Amino acid sequence: MARSGPCDGKGTAEGDRLLRWRSVACNDGAGDWNLGGYLKGFWWEGSSLRLGMTISNGDGDSAAKDGRRERKRKRRAEPSLVKWKTEGEQKTYSSKLIEALRRVRRSSAAGAASAATDHSRSRAVREAADRALAAAARGRTRWSRAILCGRTLKRRVLPRAGRPKPVGPARAAERSKPPALKTKARVLGRLVPGCRKLPLPSLLEEVSDYIAALEMQVRAMSVIAEALSTVGGAPSPAQTEGPM
Amino acid sequence: MSSRRSRSRQSSSGRITDRQIDDLMSKLQSLLHDARLGSHDRASAAKVLQDTCSYIRSLHREVDDLSERLSELLDAAGVSSAQAAIIRSLFM
């Protein structure tokens, strides 16, 4: 990666990287999530992020930037859900999750292991899994950014990620939705992190991506759980010859 | 870059019709719920939203159960055997 910065490589804790990302992202721009801005500061190791490189290429070239913006606009219009189903994505997610799990294990062993209740341990695992999932989304969706920025940040006065509420005729058009639908949409918005005040079309896009991501998370975690639970027994005959 | 902000403002002033929303909703949700709804023609927006909510809740529950199971397994398994199992699983 052609990035200059304190990229410590494999030794860096995931939390550290995420903190750095968060500080860049949250300080950048008053209102919106500045995609270009925070990707410039988005240090990441390994193969999982090539996006930063493509965005940084030809940064000074305005014509190229317009072309890229056009492509970005088109890409945003059709979020591809297929990637959540690919095996490569799942394997990437699994390896990131396993790193995070190992850190959780080390921290829980190093700290007061006896004091760590089952609930807090499973909560730590859940949060690590969610953060890894949000990282896998490459910051393109609102829910992933909300997760990575820490869900508590939502309760503070977050710089408004959405646009201010439209006034006048647009609001009248919104009111045309029956209230029952509005409440259900609000419930849905509460379920997806970071999507409380989203208008319905964006909310639906976020929801579909979130559901696809959750399904992949469930698949990956079941695979890992199966692998760990058969640790004592013989390896399954379906396994290929891995470079062990 | 205000491109995203101006983009979103444009889409809001571009009067999102109910028809658009309904299309979007049926398309997105039916894609993901093909396993659940089967071939029902439940085009009702409220039902779609309701089903989506319950589906997300069930997915959350599953993730919680899995993370509980993983936390137990992590404590029980030894370090090297866990690593070996994980490496094996990645190549399955």
TrEMBL record, chain A:
Domain BHLH: 165-214
CDD domains: bHLH_AtIBH1_like (cd11444)
InterPro entries assigned to the protein according to its UniProt record, in alphabetical order: bHLH_AtIBH1-like, bHLH_dom, HLH_DNA-bd_sf, IBH1-like, IBH1_N
Single Gene Ontology MF annotation: protein dimerization activity
GO biological process, one term: regulation of DNA-templated transcription
Annotated keywords: Nucleus, Transcription, Transcription regulation
GO cellular component, one term: nucleus
Membrane-crossing segments per the record: none
Database matches in Pfam families: IBH1_N
Keyword Nucleus found: yes
Keyword Transcription among UniProt keywords: yes
Localisation per UniProt entry: Nucleus
Chain intervals for the UniProt region annotation (Disordered): 55-80, 160-180
Family statement drawn from the similarity comment of this UniProt entry: Belongs to the bHLH protein family.
Protein known as: BHLH domain-containing protein
Taxonomic lineage: Eukaryota, Viridiplantae, Streptophyta, Embryophyta, Tracheophyta
UniProtKB/TrEMBL annotation, chain B:
Superkingdom assignment: Eukaryota
Span of the signal peptide: none
InterPro entries: bHLH_dom, HLH_DNA-bd_sf, PRE
GO BP terms, alphabetized: regulation of DNA-templated transcription; regulation of growth
Keywords: Growth regulation, Transcription, Transcription regulation
Domain (BHLH): residue spans on this chain: 5-59
Disordered: annotated segments: 1-20
UniProt family annotation: Belongs to the bHLH protein family.
Gene Ontology molecular function: any one: protein dimerization activity
Annotated protein name in UniProt: BHLH domain-containing protein
